[in-house]
Amino acid sequence: MNPYEKKRRWKFFLLFFAIVIGTASVLYSDFFVKKMEREERMQFQLYVKVTEKTMAMYDDENTTDLIDLIRTNTKLPIMIIGAEGNILTYQGLDSTKTNYGLQKKDGLTYDPAYFVRELKIMKEQHPPTPIIGLDGSRWYIYYKDSPTLTQLRYFPYIQLGVIGLFLLTAYVAFSSARKAEQDQVWVGMAKETAHQLGTPISSLMAWVELMKSRFNAEDDPLIAEMENDIKRLEVITDRFSKIGSKPMVEDHVVYTVIYNFVEYFKLRTSDKIIFTITGDEQVRALLNVPLFDWVIENLLKNAANAIENEGSIIINIIENLTKEEVFIDVTDTGRGIARSKFDAVFQPGYTTRKRGWGLGLSLTKRIIENYHNGQIFVKDSEMEKGTTFRIILKSSITYEPTSNT
């Protein structure tokens, strides 16, 4: 299992664990909410019974005092509505808004709309309980959930939100720290590689010059190819030395840069693979040629490895005048990539080859996005038919809109 697959499994495991914790928290809170609902329902039923007793024993002062004491100990918001819809009595409501006959006194006001709102909430939450009133008509008793119960209902979701926000913050912080650490490793490894390559390249150059002079081989094609490879090693060393520093980008004709590299690359690849460059030959973009060659090299190597026998690799250059962008499509006739892996192929460590390190496309993405301010993605792929990667670069030419006048 490659590192990317392990990372994905850990993410799924942590997500599953978080869902289990969240579900358990909601269910546990729901258990207490239901328990509290039953207790409040029992309190309300007791209040109704006590109120009915009050009606039956209205003239017995000793008994009514005891009943009133029991009723006032009920903390639920309650309203008793008469047969004509008028409010007869209430309790447990906001005392700053329920002062009949007082418009304003010591911060206390009478708010008729408040009663309407509260009664509407009570009707939505629970059905009324009818009783026979003192005048023999039917009265209705309404109640609503206590503030504590209401808060308890929303508590698990607030708790999950806070936990989620904390986890998101922690994830972003740790990801940033890990990315910074990875960048340091990339830079250190790249610069050390460039340093280590310097000495053997210098020696190889000296040996080639010695072979030329000793064997009079100035025009030998094999020596010329050896020189090309040494120059290629110098380019690779230059690439590694640029990792970690902001490389210079210059205006180049995209077709020419790609053509020069393909001419070098196809001589070192199977002759059963046909390379074709199509599209606009004049478009220009800001490029760092050594690093951009690295991008094309990684894409072509992956394309060549995906072609088992005979096949073709087509590089199509398109200019998007509207957005002032250059599209570079690299299409092969290889094995293809599953749609679920379109993003995964750019992850460090992801590879389908037994001896691969899974770094090529990751480096490619970093070079395009970090050093060329562009984009790269899998545009299209079909299993056993081929894949198209698309690179998007900003054009170095600014187009002025044409006037019709």
UniProtKB/TrEMBL annotation:
Its EC number is 2.7.13.3. The keyword Transmembrane helix applies. It is an enzyme of class 2 (transferase). SMART domains: HATPase_c. GO terms for molecular function: ATP binding; phosphorelay sensor kinase activity. SUPFAM superfamilies: ATPase domain of HSP90 chaperone/DNA topoisomerase II/histidine kinase. Residues 192-397 form the Histidine kinase domain. Coiled coil: none annotated. Keywords: ATP-binding, Kinase, Membrane, Nucleotide-binding, Phosphoprotein, Transferase, Transmembrane, Transmembrane helix, Two-component regulatory system. InterPro entries: HATPase_C_sf (IPR036890), HATPase_dom (IPR003594), His_kinase_dom (IPR005467), HisK_dim/P_dom (IPR003661), Sig_transdc_His_kin-like_C (IPR004358). The chain crosses the membrane at residues 12-33, 154-174. CDD domains: HisKA. Signal peptide: none annotated. It catalyses: ATP + protein L-histidine = ADP + protein N-phospho-L-histidine. This is histidine kinase. It comes from Pedobacter steynii.
